[in-house]
Amino acid sequence: MALTPPDADTHSTAPTTATSVTRHLFRTKSIERILADADHPRYRLKRTLSAWDLTALGIGAIIGTGIFVLIGTAIVGDAGRPGAGPGIVLSFILSGLTCVLAALCYAEFAAMIPVAGSAYTYSYATLGEFLAWITGWNLILEYGVACVAVAIGWSGYFNNLLKLAGLDLPDWATHAPGGPEGGIANFPAAIIVLLVTVILVIGIKESARATGIIVCLKLAIILFFIAVGAPAVSPENWSPFMPNGFTGVTAAAATVFFAYIGFDAVTTTAEEARNPQRDLPIGIMTSLGICTILYVTVAAVLTGLVPYSQIDIHAPVAEALRLAGYKWGAAVVAMGAVAGITSVLVVMMLGQIRVFFAISRDGLLGPWLSVVHPRFGTPHHATILTGIAVAIMAAFVPIGTAADMTNIGTFFAFTLVCIGLIVLRHTHPHLARPFKTPLMPWIPLLGVLSCLGLMWQLPALTWQRFVWWTIAGIIIYGLYGIRHSKLAEAQTTETGTSSSTNH
């Protein structure tokens, strides 16, 4: 079967009957075609990333806002949701186990289909175009909202550092409009997004190198916090261990899940890995394993330093050291937080851009988003669009529920990846698999149940926003994607060729 070139002219392929609609919605893209499209000169990305680069990108995305900011809310609780207290250790373990189950499924897919797009591409190969589009649409939600939240978090820590240095930016320049601060725009948040955008346009290798340096710095800062804080731990602060019972632990697990989601960003860079069949599973599992161990340790030390009810929800790690009498240590940790959150922003924006690139290459979004820069070898149009959109939102929109919106999009994507792996094992049992998920089908089944269980812990308002976002995605697919799908065009061409041959 001949493969239609991915840059062929696009025709309208709107379905005209109910049977045709069903066929269009659930048509799958073969792995051979996915790999051929990725290797086409028009869309080919530079393969420059090593296993170390991928691991650094994973750690760079995972360790940041979750451990430096959201852990405080998860411990203390917020309106309508109980906190975990010292039981936050169990929350991190529960979220980590859920991620491990999904990560094992991701690793098999990533080694077998080493192209950009992550869960979107895997769904296209197994569950059909419509569910792939919905997955990609929710990945846009995941990464887009996460980038905004991370940029705003970076701005807060950066402003604290300036205050320690004797500089104090006015509130109007550091807060979004509409709040009690009288803000005009959050300029530091917008500026850091635009600077990261420039780095990502120049090249993925340069981005990975910068991320690697930052990763080493923030790992040193976290180890510093553990080393300084551990001797000052008072075991009595761990009692009661679960002040709100296991309900508080599971609710907190749904919140701190944000702290883990970066590992799937590794798979969005699959087309830029030198040896993806070997290095992608290494990057995914190594980054997730290192971060889980660090999270559990930091959570134990943090809740042992001060009573959980006194933990600050805005800068919990740094403030815990200050309350324990280590003001100089608090300043060091604050600097590490700025570096850590910067690397998260780099990788989250990278993931958003690669999802745009993959969906556009398939014709479901405008083709200009998949144009590759002739010199830098990066999708510069998608990068610039992402940078401008995130910078505007970070400057003018206060995001109070960004973590929950990010989490629900991620849970949905993880669920479909786990289901898709079961489907692919059944439909294509003899495909070469450089990495095989063990204990099939139990690992992906447990992954589905774990994701749905934590998803259920999210607030009703988050579910409502998720439903409306999904409905918007369905409308866009109906008006544009289904008519411009390159897979539909290729299948139409092949059908016409087959008919001509038969006649």
From TrEMBL:
Membrane-crossing segments per the record: 51-76, 88-109, 130-154, 184-204, 211-233, 245-263, 284-308, 328-351, 382-402, 408-427, 439-460, 466-482
Pfam families: AA_permease_2
Major localisation: membrane
Topology within the bilayer: Multi-pass membrane protein
GO molecular function: amino acid transmembrane transporter activity
Subcellular location: Membrane
Record keyword Manganese present: no
GO cellular component: membrane
Keyword Transmembrane helix among UniProt keywords: yes
Alphabetical list of InterPro entries matching this protein: AA/rel_permease1 (IPR002293)
UniProt entry keywords in alphabetical sequence: Membrane, Transmembrane, Transmembrane helix, Transport
Protein's recorded name: Uncharacterized amino acid permease YfnA
Organism: Nitrospira lenta
